[in-house]
Design a protein that fits this description.
CATH class of the largest domain: Alpha Beta
Strand order of the largest sheet: 5-4-1-6-7-8-9
Strand content: 15-25%
Largest sheet: 7 strands, parallel
CATH architecture of the largest domain: 3-Layer(aba) Sandwich
CATH topology of the largest domain: Rossmann fold
Number of strands: 9
Number of domains: 2
Order of helices and strands: EEHHHHEHEHEHHEHEEHE
Number of helices: 10
């Protein structure tokens, strides 16, 4: 069966986080919104880190997403900092100080080449940041216009590896599972999730890490551009049990 579409994870696949500084983001929120009687900055940051450590593993365990706006509103108000700011405004304040990203090597060339071959391209990211904010980031990196589909778990409240979010991506692409690749770095969210949805899984492993026990990607690649060879070769001539590495 020929490959008609390629989905990519975002972080550590299409992009590299040059900076993710939670303390810097919380400091900017505090500077803008703190009121008399609020805890000291150090206490506020510690509270944010503790809430993050408590909530995010639970989120991951049940494959459900919370939004950054919800998280920040809860953090502020639980610390006595009441605000009329909408979640989107809080998110933007936090993000501008906490996060910066760069394209992963080969990302733009890979997307351009896939599109020249007639393949549809998409991104499916587990993120509590909003679609609009990440779209702005990807536009600044020159990648957004190269994606036919741009999906964030924060939009749907469901995270990879849940089958539903992969089904939504397929519907948006207009392709069937067996004619769609999913490229990502995360063994559970990306590879197991794609496999369970019947999508052809591609493990992006640029550092040549040992393969985790039980993980069964259809392909393993070191460079994003290696995806092009998979698409050009097609899928119909290969055994479902076979796993191929591109070095």
């Amino acid at each position: 069966m020929p490959i008609r579409a390629v989905l990519f994870d975002k972080g550590r696949t299409l992009t590299t986080d040059a900076r993710f500084d939670v303390a810097a983001g919380l400091s900017q929120l505090y500077a803008r919104l703190a009121v008399p009687g609020a805890p000291a900055l150090e206490e506020f940051i510690a509270s944010g880190q503790a809430l993050r450590e408590e909530l995010l593993p639970r989120r991951d365990d049940c494959d459900l997403e919370i939004s950054c706006g919800q998280f920040l509103t809860t953090l502020l108000e639980s610390n006595g900092i009441l605000t009329d700011c909408e979640g989107a405004e809080l998110e933007r304040l936090f993000y501008s100080a906490a996060v910066s990203a760069e394209p992963e090597p080969g990302a733009e060339a890979t997307l351009r080449t896939l599109r020249s071959l007639g393949a549809r391209t998409g991104m499916l990211s587990n993120t509590f940041f909003s679609h609009s904010l990440l779209a702005e980031e990807m536009k600044a990196l020159g990648l957004y216009e190269l994606l036919d589909v741009f999906l964030c778990s924060s939009t749907y409240g469901v995270r990879k590896p849940h089958r539903l979010i992969f089904q939504i991506a397929l519907a948006r692409l207009g392709t069937r599972p067996g004619e769609t690749l999913f490229v990502g770095d995360h063994p559970r969210d990306d590879i197991d999730g794609a496999n369970r949805a019947g999508i052809v899984s591609v493990w992006y492993n640029p550092q040549a890490k040992p393969r985790p026990a039980g993980m069964e990607p259809r392909y393993e690649i070191r460079r994003l551009l290696d995806v092009v060879a998979i698409v050009e070769a097609g899928e119909s001539s290969r055994s479902d049990a076979e796993s191929v590495e591109f070095m």
